[in-house]
């Protein structure tokens, strides 16, 4: 399990683009589970949409990518920061909207890894209900 201080050491992202609140499970090179709490106090709520704020799909994908990368993170790494870059996103499906007050849980399973290239299958859930899916490929440097 990683708390926000440990996440900030591993990821270069900062407000308003840090999309990980906690990592609750890591099986290195196999699986990771983490979450982001969706807050009404976030900047996107003013414009997406003012009368009914819905967490933007592109931010759901970014949350998946940030959490999914932790499947390749090691606490024993000499380089503290995780430097993975998205190379592609495929099979994207948005199934249900995500609202302020929701906890967006991301489950990412490694489907391929070869040298600096890797792929994860991500499922996003709110209260055990699937809200989005994607396959994300990374290049690590």
What does this structure look like?
The two termini are 24 Å apart. The chain has 141 residues and is mainly beta. The radius of gyration is 14 Å and the shape is globular. It has one domain (4-140): Thiol Ester Dehydrase, Chain A. A 6-stranded antiparallel beta sheet has the order 1-2-4-5-6-3, with helices on one face. The model has no long low-confidence stretch (mean pLDDT 94). It is built from 2 helices and 6 strands.
Helical region count?
A: 2
CATH topology: Thiol Ester Dehydrase, Chain A
Number of strands: 6
**What is the mean pLDDT?**
94
CATH-assigned homologous superfamily: Hotdog Thioesterase
Low-confidence parts: none
Q: Cα-atom Rg, whole angstroms?
A: 14 Å
Strand order of the largest sheet: 1-2-4-5-6-3
Number of folding domains? 1
Strand content: 35-45%
Helix share bin:
10-25%
Q: Any idea of the CATH class?
A: Alpha Beta
- What about the largest sheet? 6 strands, antiparallel
Run of helices and strands: HEEHEEEE
Report, as a whole number of angstroms, the end-to-end distance: 24 Å
Mass-distribution shape: globular
Label the CATH architecture.
Roll
Supply the helix-strand structural class: mainly beta
């Amino acid at each position: 399990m990683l708390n926000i201080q440990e996440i900030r050491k591993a990821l270069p992202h900062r407000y308003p683009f840090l999309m990980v609140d906690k990592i609750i499970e890591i099986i290195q090179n196999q699986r990771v589970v983490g979450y982001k709490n969706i807050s009404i106090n976030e900047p996107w709520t003013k414009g997406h949409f003012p009368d009914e704020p819905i967490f933007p799909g592109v931010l759901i994908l970014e949350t998946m990518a940030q959490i999914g990368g932790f499947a390749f993170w090691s606490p024993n790494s000499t380089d503290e920061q995780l430097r993975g870059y998205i190379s592609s996103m495929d099979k994207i499906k948005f199934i249900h909207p995500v609202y302020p007050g929701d906890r967006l849980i991301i489950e990412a399973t490694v489907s391929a890894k070869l040298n600096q290239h890797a792929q994860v299958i991500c499922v996003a859930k709110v209260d055990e209900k699937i809200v989005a899916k994607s396959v994300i490929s990374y290049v690590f440097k």
